[in-house]
Amino acid sequence: MTLKLFNTLSGTLEDFVPSNPPKVKIYTCGVTVYDDSHVGHGRSLIVFDTFRRYLEHLGYKVKFVRNFTDVDDKIINRAKQECKHFMEIADRYIARYYEDMESIGVKPADVEPRVTDHIPEIIDIIQKLIDKGYAYVAPNGDVYFSVEKFKDYGKLSKRNPEELIAGARVEPGEGKSNPLDFALWKRSKAGEPAWESPWGEGRPGWHTECVAFVFKHLGETIDIHGGGLDLIFPHHENEIAQAEALTGKPFARYWMHNGLVIVNGQKMSKSLGNFVTLKEIYTKYHPDVLRLLVLSVHYRSPLDFSWEKMENTKKVYERIRQAVEDLKLLKELPTFEEDLGGLHPLYSVIKETEEKFFKALSEDFKTQEALAATMELISEMNKIRNEAFKNKKISRQSLEAYEAAVNSIKNTLRNIFGLLEDVLPRCPVSQVVKRELEPASAVLDEDLINLLIEVRQMARQKKAFDIADKIRDSLKEKGIVLEDTPFGTKWKKA
Ligand SMILES: [Zn+2]
């Protein structure tokens, strides 16, 4: 069965043929580590983790690289707010990221490079781009990629550079000669992280790191480059421009993008207050429920997240889990011999389910259809189980067929979909941890804290100290400590 994949670059379904089978080289853009991972990150991580497991199941030897962006404006701002070194912020959120990934069953990548460990490689790429005439040093010391020098610019996002220029503008203080040009190197402001370079002290722009990581850990052309739909433009377009300007070869042969997560029909954002972190989800649901929700939607479609959907998915998850766990109870029932005159009918359902499961995955990784096929098998298993529980006995033939079905689920839902890892191989039901914890207290987001600090400042100016103190004390109760410094009020988590 040939795997067909939708390639964003060609805009069509293509047969997946790696350049050097059985090896497959995959790179996906990872997280910027300035805050906890949210459900949008979770979706991308689950999709590509599952896809990697599937390729491995097909017999490919996958080398998978996923980065951490550990220096960036958002990290620097967070460090300033908390009066901490930026690396402390990055290290904290990398540690918290690993907790999330372990919960959700996302395997570590084979290489997980960080920007701060690859500055010489990044500088080398920028220097080569300058030498080849694709990049220039602006009067303010920033280095930019000159988009008009790369004739294929726009080929991934299907955008026309001339139309893009019409809508773009140069911000004050930028030294670009063309509004579409993007920064490869930025001169650092006082107090910001900085590295020595041929163009003065500064730090890399965002778009060069992925090219440096791919060249160093995978080579000049990779099989699959993945990421969320929102990265196509400008990030992935800019990666292509830099890499292909240097090598003259395709940077990635297949570009695979997952759809975005919306929350109750709206874009997820901190200001709308609908920002859902993975940690919040785990306090309410077993992480497998999120994994199941993600895989029950085709990876290229939008995923509309809601707590109601989580609740419905939980019911489906429990149905699957129960079917697997009940094998133990069925084995405790008395057995008898049954004359079926042939194989137990459940075997043909298992075979059909597996055929449908793998066919769905081979057609642009339709995990939702693969799951639907598995649910049909579970319905048949439930019929056998219900009858056995009613009669308080089970035929040896039914029990063997039921066990074969559980083994089939182990092969598909556990090994490939990454579900049920705490159930399979079976452990006594009493030891299965139920993660039905109390819901987390409402999480205060940063914008709200900053707003409260502003209101408190206004109250103090009007000498309404009782109101100011009330705000400070209430925040403290929620674990946010305010510190009045000569530079204004700072906050930190207690
Ligand atoms: Zn990237």
Question: How would you characterize this protein structure?
Answer:
This protein has helices at 39-57, 73-82, 86-104, 119-131, 161-167, 208-217, 232-247, 278-284, 287-295, 307-331, 346-362, 367-391, 396-414, 446-461, 465-477; strands at 4-7, 12-15, 23-32, 61-69, 135-137, 143-145, 182-187, 202-204, 222-228, 252-258, 261-263, 266-267, 303-305, 335-336, 394-395, 480-485, 488-493. A hairpin with a 5-residue loop joins strand 5 and strand 6. It has three domains: 4-259, Rossmann fold; 278-431, Isoleucyl-tRNA Synthetase, Domain 1 (Orthogonal Bundle); 446-493. It has 15 helices and 17 strands. The chain is of the alpha/beta class. Helix content is 46%, strand content 16%. Helix 9 packs across helix 10 (307-331) and helix 10 (307-331) packs across helix 12 (367-391). It starts with a strand and ends with a strand. The strands form six sheets. It has a four-stranded parallel beta sheet, sandwiched between helices. Zinc ion is lined by residues 29, 210, 235, 239.
